[in-house]
Amino acid sequence: MPMTRLFRYTTIRWVILAAIVALGLAITPHYGESWDERQFFKYADHAMEAYSTWPRTGTIPLTGNTYDNYGPAYVMVTALGARLLSLVLPWSTSDLRHLVYFATFVVGLWAFHRLCRRWLSKTAAIGATILLGTQPVIWGHAFISPKDIPFLTFFVLTLVLGLEMVDASGADSKQAAATPPRRPMLLLTAAWVVAVVGLVVVTPVVHSWIESLVQAAAAGQANILTSIATDIRSVDPAVYIEKYFVLFLRIRAVFLLLLTAVVGMLWRNAPNAVRRLAVVAPAALALGFSTSIRILGPLAALIVAAYAVWKHGRRALPLLLTYVVLALITMYATWPYLWPDPLGHLAESALVMSRYPWQGMVLFNGTYYPSTDLPSSYLPVLLAIQFTEPAWLLILAGTAIAIFETTRKRRAGRDLLILTLVWCVLPLIGFVVTRSPLYDNFRQVLFVLPPMFMLAGLVFEKLRRIPLQVAVIALAVLPGIVDGVCLHPYEYIYYNRLVGGVQGAFRRYELDYWGTSYREAAAYLAKAAPVNASVWVEGPTHLLQEYARPDLKIYSTYESERADHYDYVVALTRFDLDLQSYPEAPVDHVIERQGALLTVIKKP
Fold this sequence. Notes:
Strand content: 5-15%
Distance between the termini: 70 Å
Radius of gyration: 27 Å
Oligomer: single chain
């Protein structure tokens, strides 16, 4: 490619990226905190505390609820990132977190574009990326979601780095097959794997053994501890249990570090060892981190493994083994809940996440359903009505092109069709068939949707002239941008015209299910409410308190204190709270978008 065209393409990409970043910085403070966001960062604090309590006491702080079963990697990084940003930006902690979310989203767009470039031309890849990023439902979540958009980003990042790892390892695989490692290196490496896995897995067994020894010694039975600790009968057994277990953890750490150092020195002189590690490490770190966000992260690794075996056959096994081992180490290091009992807690987390015990009701087509008993049409209908109309036209046209190219044995169409089937279609069918608990529309499955937009990119690919490609891309993204501007900062409530927009979806489908409009309600009360006014708040009271004027007296069902009279009542329209709370009180102010009410403020 001529240098002039390369420079132009690079410049366009950087200009688009700079524009997105600048826009994000400008509008981040417009978004309210989401319903359960605060709970995730309480969990992040518990997880970070474990890094000091585990080496000292052999214990980790627990939340006592299902948050322990979430991987905390991302929320820990976000909490630390918000603290660093607070040194340069005078924003609230909530806004700083939202800025980190948005930065993560931008990384996700970069990774998606990089993945698109494996099959699409430069202009088509940019078009597919912009089409994905300007979907209102995705753009809106990018600022308020501490889990779904971050998982989408790291899933795509895991996939693109994994595929690039496989491509880059081709020459090394052939050389490694021609010059296999020496027997002592293989034996010591196998011993290292066994030692790491064994010592980590038996940790809960060792703890139980120490506990039984201490309890027996404290009860007067003679064993090895009675000769070591002469005062064991007069001291609380918990003290010695903690003391000896921490000693075991320290011995384990020293042993593993020494063994790792020896293995590393032996492999240092192996052919291309450093280069091979440099190729595998980024992909493995992304996989481990992704799994420590959500237990479904390994689905990306399955695609990577299938590609590696297809491309390299049995020569891919050492590469995949290194990939998995490094990813497991990353996951274990960033998920403290796994430390006491890795296998048991990992299995528990997988079970809890597959049957997530959400107790609320889900509004779908005007009817409330339990999250575990949704109709089979739930996902297909929501996907159909929450993406823009041009997106669906392009996705369907791209699917037809991919099928045609597959019959003609053309690589791009065939690969994208297979990728969409494995990454998107089969998981969606699995969610429907297994009746997995779903709520808050389809935000939990956002990570399976990117390949559909890669199919849409095939349409741009078939338009040979760049001016025509640019024109079609502009027309395709325009409706999403216009509706996003109209809905701002509640883009995530978007519904397309198949259901009559958000006005047609009102009280038929979920709208502001994360309660972010309470920030705007707090802004209204800050101007309208008299000094020391009493305010009754329905639902997520903390979302209004976060932004409320300090003198306002906030009351809710979560508090035992009540007032004789309330100057204002604030209620979301979710769950029809606005209809149930003080139904006869006159409405003073509403927060709405395109004819759909989100929050109602009344004056009793």
